[in-house]
UniProtKB/TrEMBL annotation:
InterPro entries: Flavin_Rdtase-like_dom (IPR002563), NADH-dep_flavin_reductase (IPR050268), Split_barrel_FMN-bd (IPR012349). Residues 18-161 form the Flavin reductase like domain. The keyword Transit peptide does not apply. This is Flavin reductase family protein. Coiled coil: none annotated. Keywords: Oxidoreductase. Signal peptide: none annotated. It comes from the Bacteria.
Amino acid sequence: MTTPDTLSVDPRALRDAFGCFMTGVTVVTTLDPSGKPLGFTANSFSSVSMDPPLLLVSIANSSSNLGSFAQGKGFAVNILSEWQKDISTTFAKRSDDRFASVYWRHGPVGSPLIAEVSAWFDCTLEQAVPAGDHTILIGRIGAFESTSHPGLGYSRGAYVTPAATAVELPAGPDVVISAILEAEGQVLLVDDGRGGLCVPTARVGREGMQAALAKLIESIGIHAEAGSIYAVYEDAKLGTQHIALRCPAEAAKPAKGAFVELSRSGVADVTDPALRVMLERLADESRLGNYGVYFGTYDQGRIQRIAEEKSK
């Protein structure tokens, strides 16, 4: 019968399992007997008690600095901010002076505090508890400070920066622009990748709509001007916001796609129903010289008429 004492544990698998628990990243610091600053990277940090105010971290028994931490007067826990991954790496590697490139100061209790961290706790050593191949350091908090800097995370062997990542994500739906390239009563259609046709489209990134449109027109390989907005609609199913612009273009051979007659029959092979209806409307309005701008959703909306002289 297998018991906890006889169970064989794969260290790598156990480390991976522990790594599934997302943690913050800290640098634990102290001073050796001569006053030299020491430190190591740790994610084994936890609060212990509010009254009295206690916390804990653990240090490997194989660490050359074990004595200074386990027998010293105290230590500090510096919770790193998202942009301090390099500091985490520095204190995780062997080095004669890990503090050489780090700005730090003595804390109120005495241990080194690193600048620009998310928070710090300066502690006296309450107890050092041997625990397997590590020693648990329990500290009594003598002073602390927190800032608005988002903390650096760690999970499955990789750093996690949720605040920085959130800034890079779009705040709303994806914005898709469509370039309706018109030349001499024709419109440019390209392969939509589904066996049909569509107008050139592109998603708008952080560079903005104008830059995305300019890049899209450039990819077609003909001269065209960014014209007026012709339709604005949402597709709730895909979570996209569509903006279609009429772009007067030169009658030249494009790098991709081809010009077709701007008519109901000419755009019959357009796969997307909303896009096909939009182009059919443009064909009808081009004959009358009475244009409108569509506002709504993929399925329904309204057309706001704009007086415009018919092109000659």
